[in-house]
Write a structure and sequence with these properties.
6-stranded mixed beta sheet, alpha/beta, 45% helix, 3 domains, Trna Endonuclease, Chain: A, domain 1, 13 strands
């Protein structure tokens, strides 16, 4: 099936689901699709159901068992061409079995498709549903049964991931476990229709790549970077907007049923946003023991709100960072200025928050995009092609009695992390400051390469990469044009508007 034009990107996901539909196995097959709220799961599955003439059912939050059975019975009837009320199923066994039969009769010559969206909402009042699906799956694996393709979808990440784990009923019964990610920075820019990479970077730093925020914003995207300040104050800093960051952060945290002590989780997120990066430091910031924050941190990690970043070169405690841009913006910008914003002074609050935004949001976000560019696009220009693992590391310079953070480090393809004598592909630094990068920045990378080499790592083919939001001094550009080991990536190159500079070209 051809992907609909209205579906931006998602080529790999569309092809995977089409392959799932075309699976020749003559029995029920199950796929699980999960992803954070606003990532476009329902949009994708609606398009698939339309293209395959499938039955799309969705659960509703806080709907009781009986109302859900009535409503879904009517939706099955409508799909079958019957009047509302002509079908009534009093339990999930009858409803699900009949849903499979109805889609089979609708597509006798092809593979019938049934989609159940927001499954975790059903499980809140009907936890037996996965067990019933298991029984229906098992009984269709023998004898003559219609080859229905069943897709289960949900936004409560922890629940969706547990569906296929341990002793859960659907363990070992799904052939697809698709976790839909947000758009990358380039696709997000296209989705928002932003020409200026400077403006696109700032919008992405605030809202990330979740496509669902575009209709919520309710205003045109900033055309240029100069328009960004006004856009911010009239969207994520406007308490009357649906995309107001405090409202959205509360909505996101309530998505996972395990998050019940909202004050505790807010405090955890605030501590991480302000630099506490290990369980011990986070616990200390909250006045709690490390063990008291272990489980809440695991919940936040399973939902995708925080991540643990491992040092690429040596074994040490992973660094815990905020993953969700909206929550990060809320904790660092909105909450500290809440009283001012609530009084209608969003513009004043934003001006006061500009230093925090530049240093704690824009800077780290630019570094993260530099690493993402290295993963996705660096192979197009690196002399050795595709790199291996990409991340960061903390480097101890014994001779200089100093510690250095390497913003972008890529191992050569096939190299294991946290192993001695690793072969290094890229050593990089990313800066989102107003200053252009120059010779001193290159000298620092050369020093880091020497330190890495002195510690036994193989750096003879390592590329020294400088990422700059505001370009490079002419003398550095000249040097990079002569040297095959120096790469310069500006904002235009990061967004695909032009090629990187250097590598002797």
């Amino acid at each position: 099936m051809d992907k609909p034009e209205r579906l931006l990107a998602r080529d790999r996901e569309w092809d995977l689901l089409c392959d799932f539909l075309a699976d020749p196995a003559p029995a029920l097959r199950i796929a699980v699709v999960s992803g954070r709220r606003r990532h476009g799961k329902s949009f994708l599955l609606h398009a698939l159901a339309e293209a395959a003439d499938g039955l799309y059912l969705t659960a509703v939050r806080e709907e009781g068992r009986a109302p859900a059975l009535r409503r879904l019975s009517d939706e099955i009837a409508a799909y079958a061409g019957l009047q509302a009320g002509s079908l009534r199923f009093d339990d999930w066994w009858a409803l699900l079995r009949n849903a499979l039969q109805v889609v089979t009769r609708a597509r006798p010559a092809g593979h019938p498709l049934l989609i159940i969206d927001e499954l975790p909402y059903l499980m809140q009042h009907s936890p037996e549903v996965p067990g019933i699906l298991q029984a229906l799956y098992d009984e269709t694996q023998f004898g003559e049964h219609p080859p229905v393709r069943l897709i289960l979808c949900g936004s409560a990440m922890s629940i969706m991931h547990e569906l296929l784990s341990g002793t859960k009923p659907l363990r070992g019964r799904a052939v697809i476990d698709l976790r839909l990610q947000a758009f990358d920075h380039r696709t997000a820019r296209t989705h928002w229709g932003i020409e200026s990479p400077e403006a696109a970077l700032r919008v992405h730093a605030v809202l990330g790549g979740a496509p669902g925020y575009l209709p919520l914003a309710g205003r045109p995207a900033p055309v240029q970077a100069a328009d960004f300040d006004t856009w911010v104050t009239r969207t994520v800093l406007d308490p009357g907007r649906a995309v107001f960051s405090r409202t959205e952060a509360e909505y996101l945290l309530r998505e996972d049923p395990r998050i019940t002590q909202h004050t505790l989780y807010y405090d955890l997120l605030s501590a991480i946003a302000h630099g506490a990066c290990t369980p011990s430091r986070i616990g200390a910031a909250l006045g709690r023991e490390r063990g008291a924050v272990t489980y809440p941190l695991e919940v936040l990690e399973s939902t995708g709100y925080v991540t643990r970043e491992q040092d690429l070169l040596r074994a040490r405690s992973p660094i815990i960072t905020l993953t969700d841009p909206v929550i990060r913006f809320n904790q660092l910008i909105t909450l500290p200025q809440a009283s001012v914003i609530d009084q209608g002074f969003s513009a004043e609050a934003w001006r006061a928050s500009a230093p925090a935004f530049n240093s704690k949001i824009l800077g780290p976000h630019f570094e993260a995009l530099a690493r993402e560019w290295t993963r996705r696009h660096a192979h197009e220009i690196l002399p050795d092609g595709l790199p291996g693992a990409v991340g960061t590391c903390e480097l101890t310079d014994q001779a200089g009695r100093a510690k250095h953070e390497i913003d972008v480090l890529a191992l050569a393809l096939g190299q294991s992390t946290q192993r001695p004598r690793a072969r290094i592909a890229v050593i990089g630094e990313a800066k989102a400051t107003l200053d252009r990068r120059g010779g001193a920045d290159l000298a620092r990378l050369e020093h880091l390469r020497t330190v890495l080499s002195g510690q036994g790592h193989h750096t003879d083919r390592a590329v020294l990469a400088l990422f700059s939001m505001n370009g490079f001094h002419p003398d550095l550009v000249t040097v990079a044009a002569r040297r095959p080991d120096v790469l310069l990536v500006d904002l235009a190159a990061l967004y695909g508007d032009g090629p990187p500079l250097g590598l002797g070209a």
